[in-house]
User: Fold this.
Amino acid sequence: MENNSKKQTNVSTESSKRLEELLLHLKMSYNKFAKEIGLKDNVKVYHIKNGRNEISADLANAITATFPQISYQWLLTGNGEMLVQNTPEEEDEEEETYLRAERNRYNLSLQRIQELTNLPMKKLKAYDNGDENMPDDILEAFENLFQRIENEYNESEEQDDSLPVLITDEMVSNVKVPFYEVDFTGGFTSPEMFSEVKPSFVISSPSFAGADFACVLIGNSMSRRIKNGSVIGLKKIEEWWEYFPTNEIYAVVTKNWLRTVKIVKRSKKEGYIDLIPDPLPEYNNPEYETETIRMDYVVGFYKVIAHAFFERMSF
Assistant:
């Protein structure tokens, strides 16, 4: 039984490595990847990432249906190459179709094209592979679609400059920290969303200088230090396990995507950290307790650079 368990762990670990390699190739986050292959949520993908499950045949079918250049056999077993290899004759003869070229240009899957056009997937695959020529009206519709997508891409490059600025007592032009109107402890599905969702506005308060982003903190476990409903500015700490100033306030994300803000110090138990609350007495019944967790269970570690409570937010 123990050998079977070890074998299953090894298989799941290899699936996790292949999934990570695939997403690096596709240049996608786990959330975006789950949406592209038609999953309603990202739980199944994260279970593979964390080594709990292996890539199933059904999931491999969903992936290769969306990304036909990926090898089904490689996804399941790791054998062969990740990308489907064409023979030299096929490479010489194959020409990139209009639809495939435009999809590759904007990194769009056939599934996403189907959502945007409502065309049957069978037709889209035929156009994508060059098995069927597009009628003039369909071609014109695609040209209009990709023109709109190009316009959106151009606008997105300037979106940070177009964001409103939070008016505060002190403001400096060289500080522009994106603010997400979400509770850190309960509103984010994963760290990737910080790069996938447009922030509400930017904060130019000098106390937030050095923060990567800002969001809201709801709760009273740190109410002696940070008022419930405050805006907190966070900076990601790389390789924090090597060194971090102890007994300071950090925002921590764990592998099961729970998030907390606490005073953090190295535990007396090697390889662990202590998460220490600091509530006001009126909020400490029942009493908040120190939590001790493994360092390797942490997937995100952020220093709380600043916090502020804004009675009124205006633009």
